[in-house]
User: Fold these one by one.
Assistant:
Number 1:
Amino acid sequence: MDFFHNTVALSRSQFALTAIFHMLWPVLTTGMGVYLVVIEGLWLRTRKLDYYHHARFWSKLYVLNFGIGVASGLPMEFQFGTNWAPFSEAVGDFFGSILGFEGAMAFMLEAGFLGIMLFGWGRVHPVIHYFATIMVAFGANLSTFWILVANSWLQSPAGGEMVAGKFIVSDYFQAILNPFMVRSVAHMFLATLETSLFVIGGISAWYMLRDRHTAFFSLSLKIVLTIAIAVTPLQIYVGHLSAEQVAERQPTKLAAIEAKWDTTPAGDTAPWSVLAIPDPDHGRNRWELNIPQGLGYILEFKPELSHTIQGLNEWDAGDRPKMISLIFYSFRIMSGIGFFLAGLMLISVVQWLRGKLSPGTITAQKWLLRAWLFSAPLGYLAVETGWIVRCVGRQPWTMYGEIRTADAATNLPPSTVLGSLIAFSVVYTLLLLATLYFGRRIIRTGPNLTLPAPDFDTHPAVDPTPTEFIPDQRAVELRR
Amino acid sequence: MDALLHFLPQVWFVILALFLFLYIMLDGFDLGVGILSLTSSDEERRGILMTSLGNVWDANETWLVLMGGALFGAFPLAYGTILNALYIPIFIMIFGLIFRAVAFEFREHSSRKVFWNLAFGIGSFLAALGQGFALGAVIEGIPVDAAGHFVGSMWGWLDWRSLLVALTLIQGYVLIGSTYLILKTEGELQKTHFRTAKLATYTTLIGALTITIATPIVYDTIRDRLFSPPLSYIFAAIPLVGIILVWQLLKGLSAKNDRTPFIWTVLIFLLTFIGLGLIIFPYIIPNQITIYQAAAAPSALVFMIIFIGFLIPVMLFYNTYQYIVFRGKVVESAYGED
């Protein structure tokens, strides 16, 4: 089938393209929001000017990414209607509601407080400002929560059944708490945080390599490192838990991740391929580099598998994912980065304990700083490859086992979809280039260390009446 | 139970109408200011225009995202069919909104501002144009089959009637944008926008009158509804109230009043919107699919009332709070970064 005349392939490409690009921006702002909450909290507690200047400096990068994230995210929602109308009609009761919740709880909360967080420094009391920063970060993470609820539900449908082509929900809360949900939300929450930590750490390292504001940026590196001590190993563990779940519930995806063509019965051992050249036409790998008994160790920490692992050859070619190499290598890139970042964290902590990270000595740690700089984009790569495994690995299903991607797409003229696909390719590439260009400009300019901190004691221009405001807000958010 | 099957879709029709109205009013002035920026004479003025929106455009645009999500959840069939039929105008709008949004972020850091000025102005114009065509096409009706799926052509939304609606909507946005700037600026800049507001009042009025006269002539189903009681009384009242509101608006503009022009314009928008809502109800795609046919299961509608409906007052509260924090005139072109 010719790609340019295949509406389903074109619509899929458009969704993949917009998702891959869009993700780049909110991944940073979601994680960096948490970091800004930490930094501003430290400032409120200690009143040290350095923390305030950190908050102001990083929020410049934050806002650059935030606006582009909002803009590039718009087509994500609308594409469900424009390109996937049959899918929308079939699952609207639940899936549509969840997107609505994301708008009402997450986006609105973020947007409603963003103005105060960015432009409100002199206008509201610092405590109110801090509240706004918390609400923006909370909103962003709520958005992660709802989007992962929706996507997990597509991976492991729950809370109802398909009746005559429409998903009839019998229990909404069971659908929210679908089997994949908790681990997927945790995995993505940690992913945004880890990516942002290494972006902040990498930029800090860049300054220190040039010996610019070394004392100032060794502070941010240490804060990042402190959080990374918990985040990087936890992420590996949560990633493992997610893989277990895939093994249990999505056998076609597991087989694709490991490029396993033949079934391994329970009780047997199976090798784990580090590298392979899959050959889908002949249902085998043309070449592979194996660790004997490795699969058992990876899944269960013992040589023998306690469950049967089905190979790809168990299914017809139309009932399993097609792009085996993409899924196989994406998974290895993602997990490799996870281990690399954890290793970098360990080495850095050792150096810290040896007193090598103090402002006077840190600039001598050239290789360590270079490793941090090198790690700045790795989190993004891990997030992108992880989502490729998750969503390409789910094929040929849009909703695993229930709705095929081919049946989910709107029957549009291919030329129309091709037109919008080309437009998105051009515009999103320009957006990325412009973000990199202006981001570089912000970083080169550097922090403004002469900015005076806002006053705590005098009354602000506007009386914000905090006593009524804070409890009111929280009470409703907690109903969730 | 039968009563519930009717009542719940009606509740969601009203909630969606509220979201759409808030969007058209709030992002309406954002887009209007954007279109007006194309006529700004210098960089300083354009800077003030963008500063006046810097803290609110994102929240305002979010009402559209919210409306989209709520429409998806409450009326999945309509969501799929409408967006399928309006593929091209929707993507015109989306690209317009993308250009508009990134202009805010990039212009500030850019040394060659011309490009981002154009992105801001043209983006706002494209977004308004796409919305106008979409609105026009929905009012005209969308061809569907027995199952409610779209069966027309990709360009079916384009004709002189939807063009008329689109042009009128753009005029309306320019009007509300001008009155917003009257509220937020002073001096020469404010004077300019007293003039643009007056001009836009007349152009909007011409468009609105043409649509009002043409609609009952062209669409006989709408004509039947309009001229039979009890709706006929309401539809007789709307033009009368409209005339009073426009008269008050023009009076406020002549008196060079800071606030009243914006308030009267909002009321004109509200009146138009109520009129539109009454023409469309109980359909969600006029004369084809009713809200009862398109609605999600009653359980889904209740589920959404719990998680979205109860949050509406909270959302309104903190959005209003943000406007209060940033009330007053914008006097200089500063994004407030430092």
Number 2:
Amino acid sequence: MSVVGSMNTFIADLHDLDRLVEVARSRYSVYAPVRRGRGYVFSKIEGMSDTDLRYNRTILPPTKIFHRPKEVLLRFQLADGPEFGEVVEVEPMMIFGVHACDLNAILRLDRFFTRRFEDPYYLARRRGSVVVALNCNGPRDEYCFCASLGTGPTVYGGYDILLTEVRDRMFLVEAGSEIGANLIDEARFRRASMSDMEAKKAVASTAKREFRRYADFRSLSYPVIEVLAHTVWDEEADKCFSCGNCSLVCPTCYCYEIYDTLDMDLNSGFRVRRLDSCQLYGYAEVALGGNFRKSRKARLRHWMVCKFGGAAGGELSSCVGCGRCIFYCPARIDITSVASRLREAV
Amino acid sequence: MTNPYIPMKAEIVSIKTETRDIKTFRLKPLGGKLKFEAGQFVEVSVFGVGEAPISISSDPDVDDYFELSVRRVGSVTGALFKLSEGAIIGVRGPYGRGWPLKESEGMDVLIVGGGCGAAPLRPAILKLLRSRDRYGRIELLYGARTPSDVMYMEEFEAIAEGSGCRVLLTVDTIAPDNRWRYSVGVVTSLFDKISVNPFRSVALVCGPEIMMMYAVRDLLRLGFKPENIYLSMERRMRCGLGFCGHCQIGRKYVCLDGPVFSYSEIAPMPDKIV
């Protein structure tokens, strides 16, 4: 069903959006960017006054609302058994104000977690949720580089509702799904005028011109020898702390560890998964202390090549240009400058 | 949607001690059968301790039970070693791509095993011998550290007796008083004695990665084609589902694309020894 066109395009100010949040809150927990210290986090909101739609980026990406940093997979007990059963914690959620980069990351993980096998934990949360995307009017700050990767600043699909700030605190509202259309309907927005829709087009065309940071990751892949053997890895590895921040904040990093925890009664317990990082020493360990990425260089290279789309996850684990890894790197390692060094060689 | 993380229960029906640190567990799946191909692996759960990826070592054509030959190397395998007959563990799988047995019909087959690398090779050997007439020459080379580290000893000797498969065994070292009837030296030192034709032969190789590196080097020198040398790779497959990331070698997931790879597929990838 096509829901594009003026009949389905609305205009809303912050009061109107408050009504949307109010309507949504009867069915969903509404998560939106909330100021926390010097950053932002996706956190539960009660109304528009809790959120700031001009946020630059959240510390953790919204993909990690669906693919939780830590979650229980199953519960077990040992006596008379073992007996075990799945634990899937699902909360119907509306994720409000998702930028194009982060939305593209969500769409990649949707595909990643439904390849040969399906991940029921991610999918249960994702399928029960609603995404309200928010177009960017330009780079949010100097770290953004989605425009050169084609993952922003404008959203072209995969949302339930899409917001574009067309004038000061006035948002063009479009539905991208039936659920989104119904929510908008209940929130009783005014229909957008032709000039509102023209304004959105103008926003989209000026937005991508303002980017100053640029990246081109094409053909920077395994097993291209010029990529593997480049000296830039030695130089960057000298700076790297192997802290794992880059992969923790990355919207397309999903790698995880699975382990059991046993309660104090030594009878019942949980099997847990927790985000892991290829930057940490233990990630590529095997039995008897073997480790296939002992060196920091090998680990850093693996992470970046993965973000270039050249590792096993392919484009589904590749970079969306959100800028988090650059902003949060304590060693100021910059994936865009590493890539441009490599591009000179390939 | 079925949850692929939830194991199936399996009962340990018997335990055979192979060497001082390798045991073979025969398992009966409870409430289902485990259909598998030679070279695939399962995720074994000892609840409260965790999961570990283990190759299936039994005959793929027997589906009342399956066997896992396990070397005690870590927490899960250590916990497994403390269990007795009748204990219930969890198993999920099978996972991965096994040995290319169908594709190798009409060719000679050279099997090269080192240490507990014999475990994922055993289903292939049993399967090859069952369809013996579909293959040319079959030879099995197996090496272990010492005579007491040789697994499947009686079985290898029985295979050598009949069934049209030459068996060559070797150990790295022997004690001065040891009575060992076979060769001494690393497994690649047996390559001088092979009679398969390298130009129309596949090689199925499994062992420590350093051993596989030397084996591949020598096999290439003998004239084996890179695409006919198959290796079973060891990585820490945490999920077996292509999600957790730990088993990546370059662009490959060992759990989905492997664990068996041709050398030509894996050779250009980084972060490996072979």
